[in-house]
Amino acid sequence: MSLEIDHVTKRFGTTTALDRLTFEVGRGEVFGFLGANGAGKTTTMRICLGIIRPDSGEIRWAGQAAAVLPRRTWGYLPEERGLYPRMGVLDQLVYFGSLYGEPPDRARREARAWLTRFRILDYADRRAEELSKGNQQKVQFIAAVLHEPEVLLMDEPFTGLDPVNLVLLRDAFTELRDRGRTLIFSTHQMEAAEALCESVAIVDLGRVVAGGRVRDLKRASGRRTLRVVLGGDPAPHWLESLPGVATVARDAIGADLDLLSTADPDAILAAILGHGASVTRFDLAEPSLEALFIEHVGRAPDDELAVSTDRGTASVTAGGFA
User: Which of 94, 283, 291, 310 could bond 42 through an S-S bridge, CB–CB 3.0 to 4.6 Å?
Assistant: First the structure.
């Protein structure tokens, strides 16, 4: 059972938002959908939900076309705030649950359990506009999962969250995955994606430029990085001259040496010792997910594209689509 995005194309006027976009997400997987603003992520999610239609191609879940699936198959956390600002938190969660056929008693019980888990039960009777942005984001997440969807789509779910709340949300992701739910999220935070995702799709200008299991992408890149910390001067000027070193990225503690494919780490260590330096750290590591993103896209994940195609025209609430 999987979610299949099969050669989906979508144009808005003369702008091609999605260009034969293709990837697959297995059931029970946490999947990162990565790209700069305007790359096509939100458009893809809204096509899954039936808010907009593709020009060509198809989206299927468990072999069935997305267009014929019941609404409760999906949960959606939009990037924009989708709560009713003057409505009480618990009341609107029960209302959102009712849109998916949840009985009020069950929706209220489940909502209170989630509010307790996210440490905001005291805000149950407050209006949404009285909550901080981070707490509003947690309420939106609860609205998206209250009906226990099979597939949860989340657009920048970590927006506005401090480190403590980020951990709470990550723990919720893990629990839902362990219960067989499929979670797909877009984010600019590569560290979060690297910590949570087994697989990713990196999309640029509406096309997948790299995808698959994170560990396979790292191995296939052929890139290697040495983390070096030296006694005294942590990153001396002569590091660039070491055999097999392509580039050096320095920080306050040490340096990351990006190696050529022919580099021999043992020879590099011998050369460092030959300079009379004392070595306190010498680790060979695979490239980070952010480094892979930049390699394939040519810019950092939080860079804007010149033309944004991801905003669409539909109005989306936390509990569904308007």
Answer: 310
